[in-house]
Automatic annotation (TrEMBL):
Stated family: Belongs to the PrpD family.
Annotated protein name in UniProt: MmgE/PrpD family protein
Organism: Caballeronia ptereochthonis
Domain MmgE/PrpD N-terminal: 17-254
A GO molecular-function descriptor: lyase activity
Residue span, MmgE/PrpD C-terminal domain: 275-438
Pfam families: MmgE_PrpD_C, MmgE_PrpD_N
SUPFAM superfamilies: 2-methylcitrate dehydratase PrpD
Length: 453
């Protein structure tokens, strides 16, 4: 491989990221970044509470029912506590089970779930303050996304899922920050993270995807706890000739991992999903809404719809043509478009097993084609509908809802939270939980906030 394809191997990335995380103090974090951290945690708690009712989570709880350790941290959506490792695993898997969690603007990376699950479990174990939890969340989010930035798009193109790979480093840093690791301990922890970080895109559309993301949080907490006890590892595990970057990406630029370190925070590139499916579908969903609302197009009017999407967003892991389960529906662009046009919605109800298997949707799914257009940028979509009366209408989406140029407001995040937790928390408890989450920095003990969720 040409050295030009693998830049920055001479940079001590592991040391620089570890020192950045350890030295970060509250005064270093701009208020806008603190606000974004709270937005991310509000979103995480809502999707994790909803996800805690998914079949996968019930199965995982049965696995650990007789194996859990000390009652250190709460399982989200329950009164029961378990050990911090198990809580991190199950709560992280809950947060990703519905594929409704936030995502980075520049690459496919769900940055909050592994970090949030780690800081909540370790924070409860330590009875940490909300202020310290927020600082650890920012530190972990920043390091994980910086590693993802350095390795993308190559690591993703190789078949690795970014969230359980880079997310393992993120969870490690977040847990290590709360455990007050020093710089050398943090480097050792990152080395142990490199030994555990894994996750295949082949698992998209199955329970294996949130399972491997859950392991990122668990493995990160384990690495940090082990480092605190003096377990050692390579201190150059990211950049070394046999390190994580060389093992996982054909091309990378480790300079991106440290560019603007301490001055620019990756959390400011975070986006929140308005729709409960794979991110590339969101532009097509907005296009279906535009066809319906701007042109009066209904399913019975459609002969054929062609959606032009950016090259690289339509592949086997994001475009399952004939889904048979709700999980597969989240990765079927045809289903997302068909159900959006039919239901005028793309929420949790549109991605159940029953809705995906509804025979009335199948003909419309088959009438929708997706084609790659190299002239389009990420987030764009052009949809052309040929109607049964012989007419043709076309719409273009440049900035789907939720993207940085069209972000969800705090009020929209609150509505999403309430929609997700309806039936789990009553209205009064929802209000109290949101009040505590929006004022997290005032909490003396994060466990008291967790008790409300």
């Amino acid at each position: 491989m040409d050295d030009d394809a693998r830049q920055g191997r001479d940079i001590e990335v592991t040391r620089l990221l570890a020192e950045h995380a350890v030295r970060l103090v509250h005064a270093d974090v701009p208020p806008a970044v603190v606000d974004e951290a709270k937005r991310a945690l509000v979103d995480y708690q809502g999707v994790a509470l909803a996800g805690s009712r998914e079949p996968l989570i019930g199965k995982l709880k049965r696995v650990y029912a007789v194996r859990g350790g000390a009652p250190e941290a709460r399982l989200i959506g329950e009164d029961r506590k378990t050990d911090a490792l198990t809580a991190a695993f199950i709560n992280c898997a809950s947060g990703h089970a519905l594929d409704f969690d936030d995502t980075h603007a520049d690459f496919f990376y769900h940055g909050s779930v592994p970090v949030a699950a780690a800081v909540w479990s370790v924070g409860e174990m330590l009875r940490a303050s909300g202020r310290d939890v927020l600082l650890a969340f920012v530190a972990g989010w920043d390091v994980g996304a910086r590693i993802a930035r350095a390795l993308n798009p190559s690591i993703y193109d190789q078949g690795w899922q970014n969230t359980p790979t880079s997310g393992t480093f993120a969870a490690t840093v977040a847990a290590g920050k709360l455990l007050r690791l020093d710089a050398d301990q943090m480097r050792h922890a990152l080395g142990m993270a490199a030994s555990q970080a894994s996750g295949s895109r082949q698992n998209h559309g199955s329970m294996g995807k949130p399972f491997q993301v859950g392991k990122a949080a668990m493995n990160g907490v384990l690495a940090a706890l082990a480092a605190r006890e003096g377990v050692t590892s390579s201190m150059v595990a990211i950049e070394a000739p046999l390190g994580f970057a060389m093992l996982t990406a054909r091309t990378f630029d480790l300079r991106r991992a440290v560019d603007g370190l301490g001055d620019r925070f990756e959390l400011q590139r975070n986006m929140y999903k308005p729709y409960a499916c794979c991110l590339p579908h969101h532009a097509a969903i907005d296009a279906m809404f535009a066809l319906r609302h701007e042109h009066g197009v209904m399913p019975e009017h459609v002969e054929r719809i062609v959606c032009q999407m950016p090259a690289g967003t339509l592949d086997a892991s994001t475009s399952i043509d004939e889904p048979s389960t709700g999980l597969q529906g989240k990765f079927s662009a045809r289903h997302s478009a068909a159900v959006a046009l039919t239901d005028d919605a793309a929420g949790l109800a549109q991605y159940t097993d029953e809705r995906v298997r509804d025979a009335r949707l199948a003909p419309l799914r088959r009438a929708i084609d997706f084609v790659a257009d190299k002239t389009l940028e990420r987030g764009q979509c052009i949809a052309e509908a040929k109607l049964r009366d012989g007419s043709t209408v076309s719409v273009r989406v440049d900035h789907p809802r939720g993207q940085l140029a069209n972000p969800l407001s705090d009020e929209e995040l609150v509505r999403k939270f309430c929609a997700n937790v309806g039936g789990i928390l009553d209205a009064g408890r929802q209000t109290r939980a949101l009040q505590r989450l929006w004022a997290l920095e005032t909490a003396d003990d994060i466990a008291e906030v967790a008790d409300m969720l």
